User: Fold these one by one.
Assistant:
Number 1:
Amino acid sequence: NAGVTQTPKFQVLKTGQSMTLQCAQDMNHEYMSWYRQDPGMGLRLIHYSVGAGITDQGEVPNGYNVSRSTTEDFPLRLLSAAPSQTSVYFCASSGRTLWSTDTQYFGPGTRLTVL
Amino acid sequence: AQKVTQAQTEISVVEKEDVTLDCVYETRDTTYYLFWYKQPPSGELVFLIRRNSFDEQNEISGRYSWNFQKSTSSFNFTITASQVVDSAVYFCALSAVNDYKLSFGAGTTVTVRA
């Protein structure tokens, strides 16, 4: 199993450009999510999905779109990049145990710089 | 609302010293999970431990140990006989038992000097 994979690892954008961060998992996990990491703020949840066709907003969703057409993939789209979106982005996935959620495992991250 | 506080921003120790990372949390949920993740200089997030709020037993795994005290809403992490490879940012996190959403603390940067 490759686990959770993210592409690209690094990206530089100009203000106003759009792009999609890719995330895939091969563990058949129902839950996937996107976090951003900023200095001194830990990780903050952007969007999440509890299954194909179901997405919802997290703590900091503005400026980002997601969709989940398959169990494996959960892309994050930046519609019009802004310098405030300069951050490290992590994708995570998780399954379930018989009676609760399971531990989330994270991808390697994408470092995004918006000029 | 959930909140995780890691009051220590940075800790610097000499190799072989013990280091304790503090984590205090707030939640209205009666059942919840607490986590510790490690982020080494390479940048990935490595899962270390998950503890259920029902289980207040302390846990030891090699040089790592965790002290969960529900009465003080704390879930502290100790590295015994630290090594240079322990240098990393450590995050404490919290989620409700049937909720996937994680609330993270700001992280504590641990630097172990040879």
Note: The longest strand of chain B covers residues 88-96.
Number 2:
Amino acid sequence: ETGVTQSPTHLIKTRGQQVTLRCSSQSGHNTVSWYQQALGQGPQFIFQYYREEENGRGNFPPRFSGLQFPNYSSELNVNALELDDSALYLCASSSQQGARVGAFFGQGTRLTVV
Amino acid sequence: RKEVEQDPGPFNVPEGATVAFNCTYSNSASQSFFWYRQDCRKEPKLLMSVYSSGNEDGRFTAQLNRASQYISLLIRDSKLSDSATYLCVVATSGTYKYIFGTGTRLKVLA
């Protein structure tokens, strides 16, 4: 087990609604990254939080936003949901920004937008 | 051209076989390389980092060729439990962003 937990595990939302996904990072890790994985594709980087600040963003629109809390847990918020937002959302926890040592993923939240 | 490219497979191999996957990357500034394993509908799990000198972990061997910008993963004596999707991951030193390939599916047959 990685010690990275995400909630909820599954979610069904209607187009236009808003959703909040949560992630608790592994003990000792100060960096959380979020990824979106569509069916049959590799995960795509959304953004990363390091010590409560956004530390880089992928090619996602502003309706994808996030937060990191003092205990290093994190939230991903998506506004105005679209059908194409249906995917597995993965949270990755790491130290030293994960670039050298690898990151550890939570089990993911499977979001379905109808 | 995708930043990280992998043959999606599937690779169907018998138990006990040796199988190799390659992955190419386009950014010559890439510094960190990993292989992750992902089972169906589960999260990716770190299999191994890839070092410049190559590295081995049991039945798994990873190689890096910087000149040709490719990474390989060799699995010896395949087990049924090795059936999964293998994701190649690249990151530029000091950055925060992992670039994933689409994954290579492996199915080990009894």
Note: The mean pLDDT of chain B is 93.
Number 3:
Amino acid sequence: DTGVSQNPRHKITKRGQNVTFRCDPISEHNRLYWYRQTLGQGPEFLTYFQNEAQLEKSRLLSDRFSAERPKGSFSTLEIQRTEQGDSAMYLCASRLAGGQETQYFGPGTRLLVL
Amino acid sequence: AQKVTQAQTEISVVEKEDVTLDCVYETRDTTYYLFWYKQPPSGELVFLIRRNSFDEQNEISGRYSWNFQKSTSSFNFTITASQVVDSAVYFCALSESPGGGTSYGKLTFGQGTILTVHP
């Protein structure tokens, strides 16, 4: 049983560039979450997918951010025109359907915007 | 709005000492879930325990134990006989019941407690 995987693990980019991250959830998990974690803080919720439908977005998700989950499998998170304030760890989590299921996290993608 | 407070920013102990990590939460929901996650230096969040709001039984798992007290809105975590491998950042988190309304079970995390266990 493989866990949640994320790629790339690290990304360094210049301000103004676009970046895309990928998350592959645990295979039978139909619920998927993205979080952002800045240094010294706990993760903060960004967005939620149930199968392919994006059902909730945080106010943290500005217009420069877009997330997709085509076919309800893997998910991508794209940041356009990156800013230095976007530097953070981007975490993906997945869980089974049902009320009490636990979210399992991937290793994260650490983004540094220069 | 939900809120989780971990007042201890950093704790330093010597191996074999017991250590308790505090967590206080706020929510208006009557049904909710509480979690503890461990984040080692590698960065991946590792699930430790889940507790629902109707189950106030304390739990013990090896050297780990958890004390849930609804009356004080606390969900504290104790490591007995700490080891160097316990060094990590520990997060307490809260989610609403994902079963109703527009709640989809997103987690609200505390700021984390950095635990350092010295040999």
Note: Chain B touches chain A through 27 residues (CB under 8 Å).
